[in-house]
Amino acid sequence: MCLEPGSAPDRAASAPRPADGPAVDPIALEPVDEVTVTTLIDNSFDALLASRNGVERPTRGLGSVEAPLFESGRTEPGLRAEHGFSALVRVRRGATTSTLLFDTGVSPDGMTTNAGRLGLDLGDVQGVVLSHGHFDHTGGLAGLRRRGLPLTVHPNVWSRRRLAPPGVDPIDLPTLSAGALRREGFDVIERRHPSLLVDGSVLITGEIDRTTEYERGMPPAHQARTASGWAPDPTVIDDQALVVHVRGAGLVIVTGCGHAGVVNIARHAMRLTGVDRLHALIGGFHLSGPYFEPIIAPTVDALSALAPALLVAGHCSGWRAQQALATALPDAWVPSSSGTTYRLTAAA
Predict the structure, then answer these.
(1) What residue ranges of the chain have pLDDT lower than 50?
(2) What is the pLDDT of residues 88-116, one digit of tens each?
(3) What angle do CA 73, 78, 82 make, to 5 degrees?
(4) What InterPro entries does the entry give (predicted)?
(5) Domain 31-345 class?
(6) Cβ of 289: how many Cβ atoms within 10 Å?
(7) What is the pLDDT of residue 13?
(8) CA quadruple 150, 153, 159, 160: dihedral positive or negative?
């Protein structure tokens, strides 16, 4: 996916849409007392990372498995890391706690394996949200076969997509099947517009306004099947984020890949809710590779101006972006790793 910038028509196809002024239909997002975000799957796992205030790293010695070459016959592999993303999100209002799953990783058993090794019971998940339809965020649904579990998606999540770099045979990307998911018992809910879940305390953004001049989406090689054939799919219009308002602290935003652009996402969430403070931004920022690296600098500048208290760039963010963010926002930046829990509580 990391190709050179496209032609003028390709760039025009992903040009930003104006979104000036306050939201026409503002979202009344109920504040919460606490939100915890546990990264079940990410591209990396570092067993030596230390916990700190509000950031809980898993203890060593997770997941004892058979290993006959050791004297004890067992070893402890830790947690899985894979090119995918999944987060368990728990929100607490007073004495009531609700649990959602945001994305499910790429492999059928990676997310559930890590949850088991962390001692987390996915049986208390009340709903699943998919950030978009790419297979590195949806593959773990196979491990969640439970009748009637709500699954919130954008209608374009079923899009057939492929990678077609010049001079290379196209590579079809695995596509979700709505029929198969319904047969497995998922209650599929398609929403193009914002959704409020958990008694109004969790916002799913729906389609995101593209307002920056530099976050222009995917390269021309990323294509989607249309009625007239294959065409560039720069916007990945099904890209959406999860937003929680922590009382007195600001917005906590969880992204999957951030195909809409993390600055667009943050500004869109703030505009929708009327909350003018970004407290935390966690997930994939999609700044990896030569096609996206030119927008690292303006992205870092914009996020620096928003001044979040916590910034966790994982999955598809790339090492160059992480280095730049760590340099610009050293007090906010935290390295991502599978199994980490971020705990954000209401201001006193």
Answers:
(1) 1-17
(2) 999 999 999 999 999 999 999 999 999 99
(3) 125
(4) DHPS-like_MBL-fold, Metallo-B-lactamas, Metallo-beta-lactamase_dom, RibonucZ/Hydroxyglut_hydro
(5) alpha beta
(6) 14
(7) 40
(8) negative
Please state, in angstroms and rounded to a whole number, the distance separating the CA atoms of residues 348 and 345: 9
One-letter amino acid of 190: E
Long-range contacts made by residues 170-178, C-beta under 8 angstroms, separation at least 24?
170/223, 170/230, 173/134, 173/135, 174/135, 174/139, 175/133, 175/135, 176/133, 176/135, 176/138, 176/141
How far is C-alpha 162 from the chain's CA centre?
A: 21
Cα dist from 280 to 35, 198, 262, 344, whole Å: 11, 20, 12, 8
Q: Is residue 186 within 8 Å of 147, Cβ to Cβ?
A: no
What span, in angstroms and rounded, lies between the C-alpha atoms of 339 and 78? 9
Map residue 181 onto helix, strand or coil. helix
Angle CA 179–284–76, to nearest 5? 85
Cβ partners under 8 Å of residue 199, min gap 6: 30, 93, 98
